[in-house]
Amino acid sequence: MRTVNITLAAIMLCFVSIQAVSAQTKPTEPQEFARKMSMSNLFELKSAELARQRGEGRQVLEFAERMLADHARAGKELAEAARKDGVELSQSLDKAGQERLAALQALNGATFDPAYLSSQVTAHEDALELLKTYAERGEAGALKAFAESAYPTVRTHLLQVQSITSP
User: Fold this and answer.
1) Rounded Cα–Cα distance for residues 143 and 138 (Å)
2) CA angle, corner 116, sides to 67 and 106, nearest 5?
3) Whole-model pTM?
4) Of the residues 47, 52, 95, 105, which has the fewest C-beta atoms closer than 10 A?
């Protein structure tokens, strides 16, 4: 029965990730960018905290610690940019983010690490696309400057998680 629950949670995580990617729009309006970026950052923080609690592998734990530090800093920078541009950040995850986090919360032990890493690849790919689109087509201002400055860090995160997941 436990194996069935773990398998269902892993399938749900994959489905929700695919659903989130297909539903993703590429916002160029400051409010929509700020909302989506803040939800992305919040997912990173919440999933990294979960990885800190449930992760088993050294690389997973180190990556989660890096995510906590980098995304806490990015959250502050995003909040300052949003304040300057007069837009509000989302203080909670959307339904897709909640479902992705719930799927991770359903896992423990050896099944958690690969699911967490998989979610990080998807989350960072999505964040890169969001940052790139806004850096290229967003309105000039603090949020655009944030998108331009955050892009290299998020790209580095993606390369790091990909190197952990690739043999």
Assistant:
1) 8
2) 125
3) 0.82
4) 95
Q: Are 51 and 153 in contact (CB under 8 A)?
A: no
pLDDT tens across 69-123, in order?
999 999 999 999 999 999 999 999 999 999 999 999 999 878 999 999 999 999 9
Q: With beta carbons less than 8 A apart as the criterion, state whether 98 and 43 touch.
A: no
